[in-house]
Amino acid sequence: MISVSRINGEPFFINPDVIEILEETPDTVITMASGRKVVVSESAATIRRKIIFIKRQYGRYGPPINHSK
């Protein structure tokens, strides 16, 4: 699960495995596999980074990044 915020600042978690489309129009709109659309305050690039980070944590996109160097 990744943390995102609605336009009004209310945080919530979303399952990145059910994201079908991520677009900026200019607000960032997440379309779920179910067809439900959610407008969030984060940019598409930020959400993409969060998805890559969480999937790396579980070994699904290669090894985790070592940020301590």
Which helices and strands, and how do they pair?
Elements: E1 2-5, E2 11-14, E3 19-24, E4 28-32, E5 37-40, H1 44-57
Antiparallel strand pairs: 1-2, 3-4, 4-5
Question: Can you walk through the features of this model?
Answer:
This protein is 20% helix and 33% strand. It contains 1 helix and 5 strands. It has one helix at 44-57; strands at residues 2-5, 11-14, 19-24, 28-32, 37-40. It is globular. The mean pLDDT is 89.
Strand order of the largest sheet: 3-4-5
Structural class: alpha+beta
If you average the pLDDT, what whole number results? 89
The percent range for strand residues is: 25-35%
Major sheet description = 3 strands, antiparallel
Low-confidence stretches: none
SS summary, helix count = 1
The count of DSSP E runs of length 2 or more, i.e. the number of strands, is 5
Through-space gap between termini: 26 Å
Specify Rg, calculated over alpha carbons: 13 Å
Query: Considering DSSP H and I runs of 4 or more, what fraction of the residues is helical?
Result: 10-25%
Shape: globular
How are helices and strands ordered from N to C?
A: EEEEEH
